[in-house]
Amino acid sequence: MRFSVLSLFPNLLSFYFEDSILKRALAQGIFSLDLIDMRPFSPHKFKRADFPLVGGGAGQILDPYMVENALESLEKGHVLFLSPVGKPYTQQDAKRLSTYEHLILVCGRYDGFDERLIETHADEVFSVGDFVLTGGELPALCVCDSVARLLKGTLGNAGSLDNESFSHHLLEAPNFANTYNLAKKPSCTQLAPTSAYSKGNHARIEGIMHDLSIQRTKYFRPPLYCLDRSLQKFCQNNKKGSSK
User: Fold this and answer.
1) SS3 string of 16-85?
2) What phi and psi, each to the nearest 5 degrees, are found at residue 95?
3) Do residues 121 and 64 touch, judged by C-beta distance below 8 A?
4) d(CA 22, CA 144)
5) Which of 134, 147, 62 lies closest to 104 in space, CA to CA?
6) What is the pTM of this model?
7) 33 burial class (0-12, 13-18, 19+ CB within 10 angstroms)?
8) Residue 108: which H helix or E strand, with range?
9) What letters, b where the CB count within 10 A reaches 16 and e where it falls short, cover 35-52?
10) Splitting the chain (244 residues) into consecutive groups of 10 residues, what average pLDDT does each group show?
11) Is 137 within 8 Å of 37 (Cβ atoms)?
């Protein structure tokens, strides 16, 4: 897997890969990373990177010539634009993108992208939430992180990917640290964890965790809960239909 990230401020990205799991995975060659400064690709005087909007209004927009030149300098890959107007990014997208050999991520700035850039060069446009940032660097890091952790060898224990949030359209059940009792002062650890967790009946624990997962999803993410219920109902009806 190769990530190529285009940004006006690549220094905002590099630090994220200098520690912890992604640093180790990068060093082991599980993925490679190119952080590309778009400004040198500007064809304008003084390497100007932004221009006013057609039709006027506040703000500037990235120069399309600069972004286009930067994209055309790269080897072929799957091109992602990060923008608040894009499709909401999900874990299912991360799983799908982890099968590509080369992802090219384009970070917006100012008032974003010339729409003609997206129409001409984007394979997909993603938003990481219903809010607006000063640039696309954080969303690009979100995509890189979520995809890289799915690559074989990135996580020390691949079992960590089982039953995590969104893997089955549900949020993960509550977890508790199996730590020592050092309660010499008021502490959250004085609250007892779910008792069934510590009784060793793994089938019982799995059932309770599934129920808690459903309740948590219902409380925090009602649309996701409804999706899960609909899928469960569809699967049950499909199973009944195929057995007739």
Assistant:
1) HHCCHHHHHHHHCCCCEEEEEECHHHCCCHHHCCEEECCCCCCCEEECHHHHHHHHHCCCCCEEEEEEEE
2) -60, -45
3) no
4) 10
5) 147
6) 0.89
7) middle
8) none
9) bbebbebbeeeeeebbbe
10) 97 95 96 97 94 89 96 97 95 96 96 94 97 96 97 86 82 87 80 80 88 94 92 84 69
11) no
The amino acid occupying position 227 is L
Map 144-211 to HEC letters.
Answer: HHHHHCCCCCCCCCHHHHCCCCCCCCCCCCCCCCCCCCCCCCCCHHHCCCCHHHHCCCHHHHHHHHHH
User: Of how many residues is the chain composed?
Assistant: 244
d(CA 13, CA 106): 12
Contacting residues for 97 by C-beta, under 8 A, at least 6 apart: 78, 80, 103, 143, 147
The token pair at 72 is 């055309």
Tokens of 45: 């005087």
- pLDDT for res 130: 95
pLDDT of the residue at 167? 79
Supply the DSSP symbol for 244: -
